[in-house]
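Narrative of accomplishments. A recurring question from our advisory board has been how the design workflow behaves on a single, concrete structure rather than in aggregate. To address it, we present the structure tokens for one chain from the evaluation set, followed by the sequence designed for it. No filtering or post-editing was applied between the two.
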């Protein structure tokens, strides 16, 4: 099995971003297509279903991918890899059982989703299936490019089938079966490639529950703050019309696609930072600050371009029916720089130092803030209120993370103060 390379591999980053370019072009191509073919109401159904499906994915994943990746990079013993694989598969099965029941109840509770025949079943099945994705396993065992190739294959297949079969508003019922079919093939290929690396699939239930317990803190961070955000369109579907869901959902998906640019870097760099924290903390901090600077500049540029171009670009891309999404997008775009700060702090400074308790209380508290403001704002102001709640929740999370990092004594490392590193050494690191 390939050993993880702890150097900053530009080849890996280039390969990852080349393949991930397709992943983020995928929604940018598909969203206008959905908007023009399905209309605001039909696209609202798709967004509500996708929101619920993604929420189930995050729930069943339960922070397991992060814990599994950390466990894999901390050992080179092949036997331990087998144990980690089986523990994680069993733990996902355990969580999936209640998730199916919760998902079906939630799907039928939404008039927007339940209005489409059979959609609730494919939405729930797709969310559960996504949680069994092996991207974390490939990335943490030094096979980033393999994972990217599988993902691009699945996205290409999904895009092709959607373009072939979705041509009019009444075709909205085909969207979820088609995306489920492409996800099933993608997952099948992943498990076929690792079929000889494990002695089986299951471990005793006590081992699975022990893993779930170890992952609980990370879940309460990702599964409260991020899960709450993933469920925004579904929550809005309980209180607003499909057209309102569509207006909010377009903005939310565009912001999510922009933030998703950070994901491939995390797959390549997060394991390296986790390793370096234990061996060369100054270099780990330098990597993290480097990542922060690049993405923050990109987020600020995104805000400027959105404010300047959204008024004519949204109607041009999606049609005049989606003009109400413009003010929502102009508000939500400010989530970009705030989210860059929260994600870098959490993934590259806090998590590698195993300060899960800090993530626990900040994630839980910010999710509570988000929920408390989302329900009244969405009830009275619709899509715009949900956008305001998203911005308030993200700002609260950043404030609490900065406070926690300062209390933990990590703030100096984050901003670079107190590091005895010469200017020439710093410039050399930027050229690495």
């Amino acid at each position: 099995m390939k050993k993880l390379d702890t150097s900053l591999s530009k080849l890996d980053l280039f390969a990852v971003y080349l393949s991930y370019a397709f992943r983020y072009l995928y929604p940018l191509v598909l969203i206008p297509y959905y908007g023009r073919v399905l209309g605001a109401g039909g696209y609202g159904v798709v967004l509500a279903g996708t929101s619920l499906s993604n929420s189930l994915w995050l729930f069943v994943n339960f922070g397991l991918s992060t814990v599994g990746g950390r466990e894999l990079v901390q050992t080179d013993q092949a036997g331990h890899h087998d144990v980690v694989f089986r523990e994680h598969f069993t733990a996902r099965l355990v969580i999936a059982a209640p998730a199916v029941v919760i998902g079906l109840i939630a799907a039928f509770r939404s008039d927007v989703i339940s209005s489409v025949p059979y959609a609730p079943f494919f939405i729930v099945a797709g969310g559960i299936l996504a949680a069994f994705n092996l991207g974390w396993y490939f990335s943490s065992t030094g096979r980033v490019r393999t994972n990217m190739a599988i993902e691009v294959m699945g996205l290409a297949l999904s895009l092709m089938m959607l373009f072939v079969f979705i041509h009019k508003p009444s075709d909205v019922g085909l969207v979820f079966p088609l995306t489920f079919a492409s996800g099933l093939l993608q997952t099948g290929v992943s498990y076929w490639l690792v079929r000889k690396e494990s002695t089986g699939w299951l471990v005793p239930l006590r081992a699975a529950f022990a893993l779930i317990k170890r992952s609980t803190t990370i879940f309460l961070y990702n599964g409260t703050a991020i899960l709450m955000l993933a469920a925004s369109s579904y929550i809005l579907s309980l209180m607003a019309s499909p057209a309102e869901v569509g207006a909010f959902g377009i903005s939310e998906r565009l912001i999510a696609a922009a933030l998703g640019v950070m994901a491939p870097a995390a797959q390549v760099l997060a394991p390296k930072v986790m390793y370096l924290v234990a061996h060369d903390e100054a270099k780990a901090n330098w990597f993290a600050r480097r990542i922060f600077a690049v993405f923050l500049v990109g987020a600020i540029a995104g805000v400027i371009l959105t404010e300047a171009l959204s008024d004519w670009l949204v109607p041009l891309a999606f049609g005049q029916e989606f003009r109400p999404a413009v003010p929502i997008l102009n508000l939500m775009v400010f989530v970009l720089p705030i989210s860059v700060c929260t994600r870098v702090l959490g993934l590259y400074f806090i998590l590698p130092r195993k300060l899960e308790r800090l993530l626990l209380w900040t994630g839980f508290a910010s999710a509570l803030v988000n929920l408390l403001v989302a329900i009244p704002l969405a009830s009275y102001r619709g899509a715009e209120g949900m956008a305001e709640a998203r911005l308030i929740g993200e700002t609260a999370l950043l404030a609490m993370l900065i406070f926690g990092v300062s209390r933990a004594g990590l703030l100096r490392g984050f901003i670079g103060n107190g590091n005895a590193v010469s200017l020439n050494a710093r410039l050399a690191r930027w050229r690495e």
